[in-house]
Amino acid sequence: MLRICHASALLGLLLGGIALLPSRAGDAPAPGSWWAIQPLTRPPVPTPQHATRNTNPIDAFLDARLAEKNLPAVPEADPRTLIRRVYYDLIGLPPTSEEVAAFVRDWDSSFVIRHSSFNALVDRLLASPRHGERWARHWMDAVHFAETHGHDQDRIRTNAWPYRDYLIASFNADKPYARFVEEQVAGDALFPNDPHAVAALGFLAAGPWDESSLRDIREDTLDRQIGRYLDRDDIVTTVMQTFTSTTVQCARCHDHKFDPISQRDYYSLQAVFAATDKANRRYDTDPAVHQRRRELRTKLAAAERGDRAFLLSFNSQRAVDDWESARGGRPAEWKTIEAETFVSAAGATLTRQADGSLLASGQHGPTDVYTISATPPLRKLTAVRLEVLTDDSLPMRGPGRESNGNLHLSEFQFLVFERGSNAPSRIALRNPTADFNQSGWTISHALDGNDKTAWGIHPNVGKSHVAVFELAENLSTADGATLTFVLKQLHGGHCIGRLRLSVTDAEPATRAAVLPDPIQSILGQPAARRTEEQRLTLAGFVLRQTLSAELAKLPTPSLAYVGGSDFEPDGSLKPAAGPRPVHVLHRGEITKPREEARPGALACVAGLPATFTLPDAGEEGARRAALARWLTHHDNPLTWRSIVNRVWHHHFGRGLVHTPNDFGRMGGAPSHPELLEWLAVWFRDDAGGSLKKLHRLIVTSAAYQRRSVVEGLLDSRPSSLDPDNVFLAHMNRSRLDAEEVRDAILQISGRLDLRMGGPGDMQFDLQPGIHVTPRVDYTKFDLDGPAGRRRGVYRFLFRTLPDPWMEALDCPAGDQLTPARNNTVTVQQALAMWNDAFVARHAEHFAARLERDAGGLEERITRAFELALNRPPTPDERRDFAVYAQQHGLANFCRVLLNSNEFMFVN
């Protein structure tokens, strides 16, 4: 029997228990019996063990637990260790030698000055734009962000990067956490006036997407439905693990075997995303343009659906009168372009006809490009008209269905070659109109610059069609100029049939040549004899024309790859007309649907609704908005516990709950439950959801500033009684992650480019594949080029083809949620750090910098230590490495330094 979980049956067994057992009432533990879903209460802060120093509540909780365990806290770290630690933690880069020297000077003063200096340093780092870059990378791990689809084809997502930029901006702006969550789940619905809320929806589309199942096969197939359930499973899993640290996906085939999550809860969450797809969405970065486009689109939608109240409330008769009055001027005269040269790129034969048109016949490839050139019949041009004509030689006289020579025009370009010029000027076109616009294939697609969209003619057999393109600015041509038109058509086997091009110098109001038959019929009657229905029909048409013209004049919108239901069609992937039915599936089998699921969340969270009451159940955005409000509710304990634990993990290398994505029975128990509670309530109520305040509280604690090295101390009980350092008697030592290694090498070698934002840097040679995974070669990348100098967060992330060097350093590929990276030490890492071309080349740049910065060899050795290790060398190190550099070269010495444990680890 085909199951919806067939592609990940083993994963289901591992995550959810025995997936084949039937669901029974009472399988799930009783609601309310587990610590993670208990209501939040603020525990009292323990009396500090050392009142003169422990003013931070974190230390009061931790020291009380250390005293309980009879564990002594180790002393404070030295200033060089501490500044290096906090730099990497907060911005992911090492301090400069000058910053270290200044900090050490302050540290050697009084206790008050030293800690005042540290607090000021923390504030500077939190205010740095580098902070958002560092913490955005952590979040991208947690939501398995990458810039390709994954699966078999792994197609590139050209417009995924706006979500990464949204994250960086949000962390830098210290956006309140509740707002941050709500924007990523339902920003378009909850904050419609904020243009950047659209890019936030990249969260819903961060994970893999099965292009074969969700775009390339027929809508009515079982595999398409399976693909949708699995895609929604990825969205639900990402939302709930990221924001609430719950493993709801384990309830896909049965009630959760360990946690109070029912199968009904799981499918209620799927129902929230019943109309959510992953695709490119248009949005405006300028708030004023965003607001104007929203207003125009709202009015246009009302006009297109014939909203009677809207048409009656709008001053439609005035608009109709003005439009008809303008049309009463000189009729537009269209001059046919007599093509002088014309060619088909795919081998079709173009034949000139007596009326100036061109007839295409013969063989056609998957796509075709027609290039048509002529001298202009007019000196002034204001618009171009394209006619797609019937012809007796075409099947059923065309243009009609695909087999009849249907036009799928994916791009229309207008070029002008001035006399004596070798390079053409491209003429901007706007406000395209057509006598027919098939749903999802409108004439605007001929100008959107996207080869995957097109203007498609509906199978209206035996009828010609007309499209008009307005010039953005009137054009005056000189003698000897040549007009060239480029028409690109989409889809295999489609013939453009017979076409004719013409131009006019008429003004817009007098060239309305593209009028549907019903409108022509109404205009043929005197205004006084028109019925109310005819007047409303005409008003609707005029308003659609006027509003479309205003929309066309707005700046071209940006694109972001996001989740939602408002997007441009991509092949057979089209926005759902409304939420699709989602059923509770017996044992996860698509062929055994039970009752239809209603949008909702977890019933086990007391005081919050398990099923959402929606004003309009058909609104996809309203469903997401209800879930966003559920997640950020003041009384949702999961959300507030989850985020403070996640931040704690990245500062100490281990969360207070060591499983950041699982607060259930199969996850870890809190090591300091009172501290976790206090932090969650403090963050929610006192800090107002400010992540920067949370960072500051943590890194200014005495616990954060302790030494990481216990060996050599007189009292070694911390390492013997608490080998995993659960109770934090000392700081945890950690290896730099992949981005920190890469960015630090760039900074140390003097090559780091701090330019922010924009598309990811493709640090590989790309050979696109056709219906197969592209070929990617990381060895053919120009290491000295500008694309290799920005921070690692801007590196293009290939899901199935990751960078081998970064992968060796435990950088995730985006195929799975990664709340905590592996922190391994392997032979592969050592080989990668020594042999990789990036390290070798930047060791040479490092050596060149030393030669610029310092004179003698020993001075260069000293400078190298200060840059790479943030300390001066010992006399023995200076002497020994000077000998090594003389024998093997300065670049090889630099490579040795970059491979040292002291560089690779933060104490």
Structure summary:
The protein has 907 residues and is of the alpha+beta class. The longest helix has 23 residues, at 222-244.
Determine the mean pLDDT: 86
Spatial shape: globular
Q: Structural class, judged by helices and strands?
A: alpha+beta
Fraction in beta strands: 5-15%
Count of discrete alpha- or pi-helical segments spanning 4 or more residues = 30
Main sheet properties: 7 strands, antiparallel
Unreliable segments (pLDDT under 50, ≥5 consecutive)?
A: 1-29, 400-405
Distance between the termini: 55 Å
Query: What share of the residues lie within helices?
Result: 25-40%
Query: How many strand elements?
Result: 21
Radius of gyration: 33 Å
Write up this protein.
This protein is of the alpha+beta class and 907 residues long. Among the domains are: 6-30 and 176-282 and 563-624, no CATH class; 335-505; 837-906, no CATH class. Helices cover 38% and strands 12% of the residues. It has 30 helices and 21 strands. Strands 2, 4, 5, 7, 10, 12 and 14 form a seven-stranded antiparallel sheet that branches. Helix 26 (837-853) crosses helix 29 (890-898). The two termini are 55 Å apart. The model is unreliable at 1-29 and 400-405 (pLDDT under 50).
How do the helices and strands line up, and which of them pair or pack?
Elements: H1 9-16, H2 57-68, H3 79-91, H4 97-107, H5 111-127, H6 129-142, H7 161-173, H8 177-190, H9 196-200, H10 211-214, H11 222-244, H12 263-272, E1 277-283, H13 287-304, H14 308-313, H15 316-327, E2 335-336, E3 341-344, E4 349-352, E5 358-361, E6 368-374, E7 380-389, E8 408-417, E9 425-426, E10 429-434, E11 455-456, E12 465-476, E13 482-489, E14 498-504, H16 517-523, H17 532-553, E15 558-564, E16 583-585, E17 593-596, H18 620-631, H19 637-652, H20 673-686, H21 691-699, H22 717-721, E18 734-735, H23 738-748, E19 765-767, E20 775-777, H24 804-808, H25 827-835, H26 837-853, H27 857-868, H28 875-888, H29 890-898, H30 901-904, E21 905-906
Antiparallel strand pairs: 1-15, 2-14, 3-6, 4-5, 5-14, 6-13, 7-12, 7-14, 8-9, 8-11, 8-13, 10-12, 16-17, 18-21, 19-20
